Amino acid sequence: MLMSALKPLGELENAAEFQARHIGPDAADEAAMLSVIGAASRRALIEAIVPASIKRSQGMQLPGVATEAQALAELKAVAAKNKVLKSYIGQGYYDTLTPGVILRNILENPAWYTAYTPYQAEISQGRMEALVNFQTMVTDLTGMAIANSSMLDEATAAAEAMTLAARVGKSKSTVIFVADDVLPQTLEVLRTRAKPLGFSVQVGAAAEAGQSECFAALVQYPGVSGEVRGLQALADAVHAQGGLLIVAADLLALTLLKAPGEQGADIAVGTTQRFGMPMCNGGPHAAYMACKDEYKRNLPGRLVGVSVDVHGNPAYRLALQTREQHIRREKATSNICTAQVLPAVVASMYAVYHGPQGLKRIAQRVASYTAILAQALGERVANGSAFDTLEIKTGAATEATLAKAVAAGMNFRRTSAQSVSVSLDETTTRADLAAILAVFGLSADLAAFEKGVATLIPAELQRTSAYLTHPVFNRYHSETEMLRYLRALADKDLALDRSMIPLGSCTMKLNATSEMIPITWPEFAGVHPFAPHDQLQGYAQLNEQLTGWLCQATGYAGISLQPNAGSQGEYAGLLAIKAWHESRGDAHRKICLIPESAHGTNPASAQMVGMQVVVTKCDKEGNIDLADLKAKCEQHAANLAAIMITYPSTYGVFDTHVKEICAMVKSHGGRVYVDGANMNALVGVAAPGEFGGDVSHLNLHKTFCIPHGGGGPGVGPVCVVADLVPYLPAHRSAGYQSETAIGAVSAAPLGNAAVLPISWMYVRMMAAEGLTAATEVAILSANYVAARLADAYDIHFSGNIAGVKGGGVAHECILDIRPLKDATGVGAEDVAKRLIDYGFHAPTLSFPVAGTLMVEPTESESKAELDRFCDAMLAIRAEIAQVADGVWTREDNPLVNAPHTAESLLKADWTHGYSREVAAYPVATLRRQKYWVPVGRVDNVYGDRNLVCSCPPMTAYE
Ligand SMILES: *Cc1c(COP(=O)(O)O)cnc(C)c1O
């Protein structure tokens, strides 16, 4: 009978369908996994593992579940509240034409956006080539010796340049001079960052740079109101004072302007936004920093360098890692971890696509249109020189002019009570010029377009030197060539679109396509961060809803989405704690307790806010050593500012004493910072704001589905309890003021605003029940991996829970390779590289414990994929046994020689003590699907000794 086939409507209308798309294992998988672990049910497992003392008092109050289509429709309505006007605001953000081939094949392509930071060099050659192109583009255009890839935004790049100058310069001065035509948001962030370090910021006319003592001077080139000033005299004056000259420069302008490096600049910073990344309400965009060669070992951020692999072929890898926070901790040069890799790749490819001639043509058009506009405006123009920006005297008509522009669909920038400015960009057309002039009751001299006009760039500042001469910027100008270049690079890399990436502490989960779709909607991507507030109502609502939901998830009272990476959230959170102490007359409270297991960004951030780091011990289970903590709390009681803990700990265990730890620190006058990078083990189950945290940052690019982008963008919201809400960051340049707030920590008020829709979609589609299920399955999956591997490997830290095979871990587990290394010479790095032959990205290597691998499977991986990974790990363990048994020698075995390239396997003279088949196809499934690694093991030491950070000559490949 047909009737009996009818299903209840509820089942047909499954609104919760997305939950099952996001979560890998289904009910049958779950049952099978539970039986391997030895747990009766998922509930029972969670009850056994998560301490009862920290359980949430009540569920999360979130909107009911929405399907993908429903959530997209709802978000579209939010987006529609933003008004997309033609922007002439400038001030560091310009409209740009993202080439379609780059939009679709990079920005919207999971092969690029789901990749991880390129720590495993061999499987990251494609994105590192793109980053070396980025570094080459920046060094060429700025005329500096070396550039990194990348910085979080122009303002924080300027702040990092300030600390770099203080570190490497010889001046004893604590003054940084800042020209008064630097971008206002840059000045604002600089003030925030200078204060805790004891630097004073002195603002004056650019021409006054170097007229009094300073350790550094920062000037904008061209200035925010358009003036183009020569730098050599400023550099000479600043150098005579013993200081360094920092130049914030616009890369498009530099195609026509004499480079900062040719005029004595010591450090150059800036944004690459207008190279193809939409304005995005302020981010994400890649900023850059470049400097003289002598400062390279102090350069913050990531640096990609050229090295060689074991076969002597050129290969890329991250260079000078020893500068970074992971190694140097509180002595690090910066706390930057996640940067802006995806936007950096976009910007580099914009330069590859247009080439030097194309970029110059774009810049010349912008400069010529600006000159034509100036001609028509005549006496009203205030600047004597310009590239793309004119300051226009409006007298008493300023507000009326701005209003008239808005009525005509345009935003000008208000520069003073008596003036506005207009900044042109590559999208500006003749019709646009006519519309701008119409606001002033003028019309353009059409004949000028045909005759051509001289630009307003001073003759002595015209660029004569060549740039982007390397073949990579000159051979991919047809779309066919470009498309294939992008595909060829992506094919070299392992990203989430090929296999699981079991990186502990990094939560490489699904970045669903529906979550990604809204980020390029013009209503989100096309707005300027300093547009009038009434044009940004969609973002205001997005901010309000998302922070409200995240408050539910964390148990905190207030959240700011401004920090654009976890490290920046740490910085903002510690500043809030510091401001609170100061408000109570306790400015002397500067001691920050940090367990030895902490992520390197924690001590680096504490140092940046002027706190003094005191390291506390962990016991052999990975928990905080209570006796040591007590002793240090007592010893430092008078000066205790805070403790920074990670929960569950970086060792992947739920410390049952966490409440006592929080109480102990509070009873000695300190506040508790809970690093929220491990929130994927907590959402819906326990809330740090409830169990004792005062402040946390979240990594929306871990727990809340923003993809890693190959190392950024990220979002690191700072979350606080009620009495710290007044200290969340303000943003005066964007009109968000408050008496008590700490200053701005990012260039834009909502930081990396345009990727926030990703987390919004995730929460909206999962709802409370789905988010809680995700947490539980993440814990289940980690315990399944631990259970399957427990007989083969030492699980380094576990809860030692009776009846749970593997002992019980949180959402990740640490495999200790050290005993195997002692016995066979095969270490964690060899296992990591051998996994490449099996088609996997390695787990986190040697963090938080050297010689270990930390595996975090996440909830998104199916049981089949978890099994494929466990099978690989077990097969590798059997290979290690062959070395132990003497079948293979310590010096020649498939582990120490991994990874194996096709070329090395096809050599006529195969001399190894194992077969080619063992090298390439250690498990049968690889015969059907195989990732071929493009290079052999990369030599890190060689690369650091022979530092090359720009495109190698083509002969290197011959
Ligand atoms: C990832 C991580 C951070 C830093 O976050 P970024 O976004 O990379 O700056 C801090 N702490 C822990 C424990 C992390 O895993």
Automatic annotation (TrEMBL):
Keyword hit for Cell inner membrane: no
Catalysed reaction equations from the record: N(6)-[(R)-lipoyl]-L-lysyl-[glycine-cleavage complex H protein] + glycine + H(+) = N(6)-[(R)-S(8)-aminomethyldihydrolipoyl]-L-lysyl-[glycine-cleavage complex H protein] + CO2
Modified sites of kind N6-(pyridoxal phosphate)lysine: K702
Glycine cleavage system P-protein N-terminal domain ranges (all copies): 21-440, 453-729
Enzyme class per UniProt: oxidoreductase
Pfam families (alphabetical): GcvP2_C (PF21478), GDC-P (PF02347)
A Gene Ontology BP annotation from the UniProt entry: glycine decarboxylation via glycine cleavage system
Keyword line: Oxidoreductase, Pyridoxal phosphate
Classification via InterPro entries: GcvP, GDC-P_C, GDC-P_N, GDC_P, PyrdxlP-dep_Trfase, PyrdxlP-dep_Trfase_major, PyrdxlP-dep_Trfase_small
Cellular component, GO annotation: cytosol; glycine cleavage complex
Cofactors (names): pyridoxal 5'-phosphate
GO molecular function annotations of the record: glycine binding; glycine dehydrogenase (decarboxylating) activity; pyridoxal phosphate binding
Glycine dehydrogenase C-terminal domain mapped to chain residues: 774-900
Top-level taxon in the UniProt lineage: Bacteria
Coiled-coil spans in chain: none
Entry keyword annotation includes ATP-binding: no
Its EC number(s): 1.4.4.2
Stated role: The glycine cleavage system catalyzes the degradation of glycine. The P protein binds the alpha-amino group of glycine through its pyridoxal phosphate cofactor; CO(2) is released and the remaining methylamine moiety is then transferred to the lipoamide cofactor of the H protein.
Protein family membership: Belongs to the GcvP family.
Alphabetized HAMAP family for the sequence: GcvP
Assembly and interaction partners: The glycine cleavage system is composed of four proteins: P, T, L and H.
NCBIfam families named in the record: gcvP, PRK04366.1
Name under which the protein is recorded: Glycine dehydrogenase (decarboxylating)
